[in-house]
């Protein structure tokens, strides 16, 4: 296990974004659990929404007096090959989970559980990679309370994968999901819904003129191959089949029929715990190799993601399954109109026609139609973008996430 770096954040840095009642609520909830010690465990310190939330969340927790640590699992590549299959299985795939794969998983979680030396009042295990640690930890620390925070879409999981985790789920004190229906297939009596959130102070989300000197170069659109004077469609996501990048390409081609100078950019990271990403990247690259107006940009600095989102005329999130999609909140926060699919956590953020558009996940024609509307109507795009930013300010910023976790810890203590 490795200690993860946390952001240099204080609660006071966010107070200008909050109304008085919200500020008081957050401080009161943190004070109520200031006697507790908390551990968060996940697999990576960068490259995904979980890590991006944990950095500021842990920092703010400590700033408000809730002693909180964050550690990372350490495991061989074979473990992450297995957990990618597990991730897909819990989202509905039926690839077999062989005995060898199960043994690889169980060995890695046992080693990592044994590496936890300190005792905590509450341990939060994030996603399937860490869930298998719970039995080992509960045996060693019987007074602790264990929370499994699942960030993925569990609407239609493969039964074999639920059975694989049955004992682990029975050992946790609380499951946390992003929407109520995700908990329906789980063999648990009670689940808590907590919506994810973005950090508005990071280089990925702050105004470009507030970037540090170190980050400023990454936030210069001139460093990227897109033409800022031409219409730009953008999808920010992992190169993952659930994000349907080839469907995005199909929608872009339909838009191009009426907006011939439109461009398409994919911005995606290659996280250490996602071995499938490179394969999907190659497929998209091969499909678009003859089109100079399609750009595949990987592992941009956070400031680069920021400037690409602010440069885009329309941001897409064409997921087939989606736990939440923090990339939607990021784009809305920047006042960009978003066309997202009506799956998972996306409709929690987008009200169709009010602060963005929702389409069915495989409806290429509707996706292209909404993109065209926004490209051809600047006033519409501006109105939806303004409403989107206010939605995020009220509901999807990190201080609210801290308040929700503090309330949860008070319940399970």
CATH topology of the largest domain, anyone?
Rossmann fold
Number of strands: 13
Mean pLDDT: 93
Q: Spell out the helices and strands N to C.
A: EHEHEHHEHHEHHEEHEHEHEHEHEHEHHH
> How many strands, which pairing sense, and closed or not: the largest β-sheet?
7 strands, mixed
CATH superfamily of the largest domain: Glycogen Phosphorylase B
Q: In terms of per-residue confidence, which ranges show pLDDT below 50 for 5 or more consecutive residues?
A: none
Cross-sheet strand order for the largest sheet: 1-3-2-4-5-6-7
Shape: globular
Write the layout of secondary structure elements.
Elements: E1 2-3, H1 20-32, E2 37-42, H2 49-63, E3 67-72, H3 77-90, H4 99-114, E4 122-126, H5 127-131, H6 134-140, E5 145-149, H7 159-164, H8 166-171, E6 174-177, E7 191-193, H9 213-216, E8 232-236, H10 245-258, E9 263-268, H11 277-287, E10 294-298, H12 302-311, E11 314-317, H13 326-333, E12 338-341, H14 346-349, E13 357-359, H15 364-376, H16 378-395, H17 398-412
Parallel strand pairs: 2-3, 2-4, 4-5, 5-6, 6-7, 8-9, 8-11, 9-10, 11-12, 12-13
Antiparallel strand pairs: 1-3
Helix pairs in contact: 1-17, 2-17, 3-4, 10-15, 13-16
């Amino acid at each position: 296990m490795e200690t993860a770096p946390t952001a240099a954040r204080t609660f006071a840095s966010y107070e200008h974004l909050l109304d008085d009642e919200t500020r008081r609520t957050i401080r009161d909830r943190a004070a109520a659990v200031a006697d507790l010690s908390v551990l968060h465990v996940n697999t990576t310190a960068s490259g995904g929404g979980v890590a991006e939330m944990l950095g500021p969340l842990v920092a703010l927790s400590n700033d408000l007096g809730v002693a909180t640590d964050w550690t990372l699992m350490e495991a061989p590549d074979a473990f992450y090959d297995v957990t990618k299959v597990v991730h897909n299985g819990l989202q509905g795939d039926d690839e077999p989970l062989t005995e060898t794969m199960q043994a690889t998983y169980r060995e890695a979680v046992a080693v990592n559980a044994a590496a936890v030396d300190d005792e905590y009042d509450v341990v939060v295990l994030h996603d399937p990679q860490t869930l298998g640690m719970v039995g080992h930890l509960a045996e060693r620390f019987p007074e602790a309370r264990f929370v499994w925070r699942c960030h993925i879409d569990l609407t239609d999981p493969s039964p074999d994968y639920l059975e694989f985790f049955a004992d682990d789920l029975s050992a946790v004190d609380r499951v946390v999901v992003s929407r109520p229906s995700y908990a329906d297939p789980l063999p648990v009596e009670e689940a808590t819904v907590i919506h994810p959130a973005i950090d508005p102070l990071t280089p990925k989300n702050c105004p470009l003129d507030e970037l540090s000197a170190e980050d400023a170069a990454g936030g210069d659109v001139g460093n990227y191959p897109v033409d800022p004077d031409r219409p730009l469609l953008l999808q920010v996501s992992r190169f993952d089949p659930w994000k349907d990048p080839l469907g995005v390409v199909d929608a872009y081609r339909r838009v191009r029929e009426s907006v011939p100078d439109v461009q398409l950019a994919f911005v995606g990271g290659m996280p250490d715990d996602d071995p499938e990403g490179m394969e999907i990247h190659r497929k998209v690259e091969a499909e678009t190799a003859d089109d100079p107006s399609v750009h595949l940009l990987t592992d941009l600095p956070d400031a680069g993601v920021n400037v690409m989102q602010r440069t885009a005329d329309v941001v897409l999130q064409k997921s087939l399954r989606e736990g939440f999609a923090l990339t939607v909140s990021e784009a809305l926060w920047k006042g960009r109109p978003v066309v997202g699919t009506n799956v998972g956590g996306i409709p929690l953020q987008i009200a169709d026609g009010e602060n963005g558009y929702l389409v069915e996940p495989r409806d290429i024609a509707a996706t292209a139609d909404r993109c065209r509307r926004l490209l051809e109507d600047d006033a519409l795009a501006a109105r939806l973008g303004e409403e989107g930013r206010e939605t995020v300010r009220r509901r999807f910023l990190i201080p609210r996430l801290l308040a929700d976790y503090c309330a949860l810890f008070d319940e399970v203590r």
